[in-house]
Amino acid sequence: MLKNNMNATDKNLISEIKNVLVPKLNEFIADSVIRVNCRRIGVEPQDLNMDKLPIFLEKIEVSLLLFLTKEEIADIIQKIKNLRI
Amino acid sequence: MQNIKIKTGFSQKENEEEATKEVFEKINQDNMKLIIMFCHGNYNQLKLNRAWRALIPPETAFIGCPSLTMNIPFFRVGDMLTNQGYKDCVSAMSIASDKIEVVVNLMRDIKNNWKKTSTQALVDGAKTLNLDLKNIDNEKCFGLFFCDTMSGCEDDILENFYASSNLLFVGGGSTGKMELSSWLFKGKGGGSGYIHTREGAFTDAAAIAIIKSGIPFKIDLITNFYPTQHKFEVTKVSETHMGKMKMWKIEELNGRPALEEYTKALGVSKWSLGIEHLPNIKYLLNHPLGFMVKERAYIRFIGARKGKSLLMPSKIEEGKTLYLMEKTDLAEVIRQSIDKLKNQLGFVSGLVLFQCGLQKLDADSLKETASLVKTFNIAPLIGLTTFREYYGWLAFEQSLVLLALGDVAKK
Fold this sequence. Notes:
- The structure holds two protein chains of two kinds.
- By secondary structure, chain A is an all-alpha fold.
- Chain A has one domain (2-81).
- Chain A is built from three helices and no strands.
- By secondary structure, chain B is of the alpha+beta class.
- In chain B, α1 (16-27) runs parallel beside α2 (45-55), α3 (110-128) packs parallel to α4 and α8 (330-345) packs parallel to α10.
- The longest helix of chain B is centred in the first third of the chain and has 19 residues, at 110-128.
- Chain B is globular and about 60 Å long.
- Chain B: InterPro entries: FIST_C, FIST_domain_N.
- Chain B: Pfam families: FIST, FIST_C.
């Protein structure tokens, strides 16, 4: 039961992160940013959890610099940090 | 005092050895860390590579590739961008600086072994430059990436580079000479996307130059499109080949046959798109699919139709949403981007440009090439006509991707 709950939480996390990224980046770039940065920290997107979120956020900052300003990135990072899953 | 010296040169001599010698005499200087070479696809790539290897000093890294070269009715591309305009030539840039370290690594047999060879090239390069791959400072390190586009695996390689490191790349696809006759009559159309390094010139290959730089630099991607109200969800995709080239076959858009949805949005018959082996490139380049991030468009080009499907040279996944795009003023967009770049760097010591052959063709038909050359002419430059442009860890089409080098002493 606990395992199922954890999976549901993880699923919510990636879906909530996507909800923050897509309006700024389009689905194409948002999915790619999530996929490649999850690979960089050694997890599948569906396995991203709150424990790994800080390192994930650290990694996506550089990726986002190709598309957004530092201010816009800071805003996105804050929105993801504020997520309540 | 300059911290970086960049020299460029080109030759239009037909003989490979003579052309190489002429270019080398123009770019030769002390302390060359890197030579980047671009050439027309009509040159014999093996002879050209031998000629370069005979001249380059042992301590100088070397990387290069031929341009997308096609000469068919209504579609003639292949020229290199030089400070004196677009030329049918061999061109090269030498970069000399005590503040730059470069390593070039070749990858072969990439169709079958892209993951192993690309990871190895990256790891070996990082070791040579004493870099911690996971913690590279993106303001002090970048990569150049050239890939044989016939391999169809550049998307995978680029993503593998970024997933394994912190390194962002710029570059372009090497396509070489594409023969119309084989394309039309044998169905084997496709180029010879040679990759040049010190090891030789090879197809089914790619190469990276990892550059550790104490010189400021910027990378950028420039496109001239905006979205129309026509929005498509890609609902069915499979992989196929057009001649030798790997393509993604979009079978359905919005749950309906892709060709029907696309032509309906455009209000034209399927014949406006040409036929499978002779696509109407001039029409298709005006109506690509894509999306926006802020003011910039990212483009997915429709290469041809096949049955009720559309063929796309770039990887696309089901579930993605793309818009039918419309063009804006190319010359103006490029002028604004170059101005912004000059302001950011303060001084530009060199430019390396990767311009999609379709963008160049469009500029030709609008008679805008002279205006573009004038805009680019702010520093020694070389430019390649590409098929697919690489930006960060992603590949796009109908784009101009550029690397601009500054100089700390002149900022």
